[in-house]
Amino acid sequence: MNNSGKIAIPKIELHVHFEGCIGPELMARMRAGEKISRPELDALYSFDNFPGFLKAYARVMAALEQPGDFREAAGFIAARLAARGVVYVEFTFTPLPHVRRGLEHGRVIEAVLAGLEDARAAGAKLQAAFIYDTVRQWGGEAAEQSARLAVADMKAGLPVVGFGVGGDELGCPATELQPAFEMAAAAGLKRYVHAGEVGGPQSVREAVEILGASRIGHGIAAAGDPELLAELARRGVCLDVCPTSNLFTRAVDSYEKNPWPAIAAAGVPVTIGSDDPGFFGAWLDEELERCAAAWQLDQAALRGLMVTAARHSFQPREKREELETIVAGI
Ligand code: ADE
Ligand code: ZN
Asked: I need a surface site. Which of 16, 75, 132, 262 has the fewest CB within 10 A?
């Protein structure tokens, strides 16, 4: 597979979880996967709703047993993204589950960065940055611990550009997470919140007003609230929508029912992401192909989505403009 497929434009991916890129193919190559039979592998990835997905996600994360596994995964993922035409990715990465399993964070992130370098040395033309996120249902203290890791790595010069939250959107009130988000913002990190995926419009409103999110993962629940849409548009808060993920987690019944076109029509910046291609089976090029088919998006519309992604990446202005030039094809 390479970038000569149907969606042969340079792509930017702003909503993809590093750990969510570990699908059965990569798992079977990893140390933990070697011990697993095919039926066990299928069971590992099976789920039929959002809580089930979060459980499967935790099982897959646990397959990252040692720094070498992170390096192997990063090399594979970077090569795969580059082959699909992704030129810039903002990975969401969740350090705390690995720390809680006894891994040393410094060695983990060093291994991830080494894996990216391995892929580049083998020809992958991919620029990457990281948003460290916390696990919402683990509460405020875990959020502060995660934010401290993000701030420390950013200050150490690693490519960490944001702090975020994922997991069970209904598992902890925004107010409890607020100190962590303020700490991250005070240090210069941008804020990324998963909201409006399984929660309602109020969850999106709190992501913006309490946690200061400048981008939202999903956010589709905002479609039901015209005032909220107007507020998101006014503030220029970008929604990184993932239609295939929404189908798999049962957040939405079909591509056609996904409300992102109405959200974009209300003037809210929207990008398309793959979220967890290892679990949902669609990398960004396939995600875009499915979107193009469902909503008759032509090449110009797809390029438009990429331009929005360039403009809303968490990079400084100069870098955003450079990315925009690349994806606009000018
Ligand atoms: N972590 C990985 N994928 C996620 C999703 N779709 N929602 C919340 N947290 C996640
Ligand atoms: Zn996500």
From this structure: 262
**Model pLDDT for residues 82-96, shown as the tens digit of each residue:** 999 999 999 999 999
Q: What is the three-class DSSP state of 18?
A: coil
What's the Cα-to-Cα distance from 188 to each of 90, 185, 215, 227, rounded to whole Å?
Answer: 16, 5, 15, 29
For residue 75, tell me if it sits in a domain.
Answer: yes
Q: How many domains does the chain have?
A: 1
| pTM higher than 0.90 | yes
254 in a domain, yes or no?
yes
**CATH number of the structural domain spanning residue 226:** 3.20.20.140
Gap between the Cα atoms of 188 and 271, Å rounded: 23
For ligand 1, residues with CB inside 6 Å are 17, 20, 57, 166-167, 194, 197, 245, 249, 275-276
Domain residues for the domain of 75 are: 12-328
Counting ligand 1 atoms within 8 A of each CB, the residue from 15, 16, 17, 22 with the most, and so the one to mutate, is 17
